[in-house]
Design brief:
The chain is mainly alpha-helical. The chain has 2 domains: 2-46 and 187-374, no CATH class; 55-154, abc type-2 transporter like fold (3-Layer(aba) Sandwich). The chain has 15 helices and 4 strands. It has a 4-stranded mixed sheet, with helices on one face. Strand 1 (55-59), helix 4 (64-71) and strand 2 form a beta-alpha-beta unit. The longest helix is centred in the middle third of the chain and has 31 residues, at 176-206. The radius of gyration is 28 Å and the shape is elongated.
């Protein structure tokens, strides 16, 4: 009988949470945008590939090798190269006309054939920071490849000491949208679950309904669980639709593993993050205070969990501390499932850890909510 009453109270309170969220149009718009247009814009607007970079060539050699190098810069990575004089290099870079200027010195081919190791100068406009860093590597690889092919074809006895064969697994073309779209969903799940759960508590306080809880025959655990279930269900539903329709069909990103296994991991992650959001909501008294706590919480969770910065590049001490954060384990299991096609046997440890972390946050939220109601 007591169990049925508990279930009934949680169900009724969850329905109340759904209705409250339905009437908050700003949060609804935020959810819809975050898992639709926000995913598309974030994954396509800031590309990590090189596209139509403006490049110029100063060919002082005029040899077959220098012309071969010039012809190797093609779309879509580079615009068709423009040949300019050496005197025009500085004005062209100062005016932003070109991002890259390759200077091939006189006698380059003859020095190369005589094994004198001549140099090619690459001038880069580093104000175009993202293109500058990526393009430098592209240019070096293109020039090295053309020189090696030319020398190998001219000197039959010439052999390279090492032959590199590179295989890029899971993302053969290194397409940034394949990585960015999925990681944006992961980050949005964390962000929205915390802000929605915290806002639900603040909404109770601002509307004066927190005092009503003092005279209702409900327990703090029922109130907290209803907010966890309602807000977690909304985010989980939106994230699943976004993964299927926006990522798979609109952005054409291949999903290697089981979407439903990812949904299971996301549900456990939401269990932890919504409990965290309720805990923050009991600390803050107003929405501005919640916003400040949200910034201090979400930024480290997203930046230090491997979703933005490679986890291995983070100092070891921070890696150890981030083991208590749910985002670290959620990012690991999401990448294992969606990128590498991992199954339950690969990610079960992360699932257990998420369940334990979520339980700790839930108990903390219930304890804090009880004292918050008592002091209201």
């Amino acid at each position: 009988m007591r169990s049925r009453m508990l279930d009934s109270n949680i169900l009724q309170l969850s329905i109340k949470e759904f209705r409250s969220l339905w009437h908050d149009k700003i949060l609804l718009i935020l959810i819809v945008w975050a898992f639709s247009g926000g995913i598309y814009v974030a994954s396509t607007a800031s590309s990590q590939e090189l596209h139509n970079a403006p490049i110029a060539i100063v060919d002082e050699d005029g040899s077959p090798l220098s012309k071969t190098i010039g012809n190797a810069f093609n779309e879509p990575y580079f615009n068709k190269p423009e040949y300019i004089n050496y005197s025009a290099v500085e004005p062209a870079l100062n005016s932003g006309q070109f991002t890259f200027v390759v200077i091939i010195p006189s006698g380059f081919q003859s020095d190369m054939m005589a094994s004198k190791q001549p140099t090619i100068q690459i001038n880069i406009d580093a104000t175009q920071m993202s293109q500058a860093g990526i393009g430098d590597g592209y240019i070096q690889n293109i020039i090295s490849g053309e020189v090696n092919k030319f020398v190998s074809g001219t000197l039959k006895s010439y052999k390279l000491p090492v032959k590199l064969i590179i295989h890029n697994k899971y993302n053969p073309n290194l397409t940034s949208s394949w990585f960015g779209s999925i990681m944006e969903i992961i980050n949005n799940v964390t962000m929205l679950s915390i802000i929605l759960a915290g806002a639900a508590v603040i909404r109770e306080r601002e509307h004066g309904t927190l005092e009503h809880l003092l005279v209702m025959p409900v327990k703090p655990i029922e109130i907290v669980l209803s907010k966890v279930l309602a807000n977690g269900a909304v985010v989980l539903f939106a994230a699943t639709l976004s993964l299927i329709f926006i990522v798979q069909y609109v952005l054409q990103v291949p999903i290697k593993g089981s979407i439903w296994l990812f949904v299971l991991g996301a549900a456990l992650h939401l269990f932890a993050t919504t409990s965290m959001g309720i805990f923050l909501g009991t600390i803050a008294r107003t929405m501005p205070q919640l916003g400040l706590l949200f910034i201090l919480t979400v930024l480290p969770l997203e930046m230090l969990s491997g979703g933005i910065t490679p986890y291995e590049s983070i100092p070891q001490l921070i890696q150890d501390l981030m083991q208590v954060a749910p985002t670290t384990h959620f990012v690991n299991l999401s990448q294992a499932i969606l990128y590498r096609g991992g199954g339950f046997s690969i990610i079960w440890e992360q699932l257990v850890i998420l369940l334990l972390i979520g339980s700790v946050f839930l108990l903390s939220a219930v304890s804090r909510f009880r004292s918050s109601v008592a002091n209201a």
